[in-house]
Amino acid sequence: MRKILVLTTAALLTTGCASTTWVPGPDMSNTDFVYAKYICAQESRVDPVYPPPRDFSQGRTGPGGYRPGALTAGGQAFGAGMAALNQQKKLYNLCMEAQGAVAEETR
Fold it and tell me: How many domains does the chain divide into?
């Protein structure tokens, strides 16, 4: 069971590291491209949405005490941070596409 958890976590972490490389579009000057990158970085800012504090303690309390496998405060905060990062990447990519930039093809 522990091996499956470690492999699943490693797979999720490595796939989350992929990023899109953007280049100026056909009708885009270098100045326009730099400005678009700045605008999209500002517009894609996302704050993590942490669960309420009462949810943090549920992993350690209950009729039987500690429940193995329950999310602790650290696990919930990590999950909220990863969700916010994925949302930020998605918003940045949509913004760059709307500004006229082109995703660079990786070979």
Answer: 1
Task: List the domain range (segments joined by +) for residue 78.
Answer: 2-103
At a CB cut-off of 8 Å and minimum separation 6, what does 83 contact? 48, 49
The whole-angstrom separation of Cα 7 and Cα 37 is 35
55-82: b (≥16 Cβ within 10 Å) or e: ebeebeeeeeeeeeeebebeebeeeeee
Say whether pTM exceeds 0.70: no
pLDDT tens for 47-87 read: 776 655 544 444 555 555 555 555 566 777 777 788 888 89
What is the 8-class DSSP label of residue 62? S
What's the CA gap between 53 and 28, in Å, rounded? 47
Residue 12 burial (C-beta neighbours within 10 Å; 0-12, 13-18, 19+): exposed
Residue 6 CB-half CA count within 13 A = 3
E-assigned strands of the chain?
Answer: 22-23, 102-103
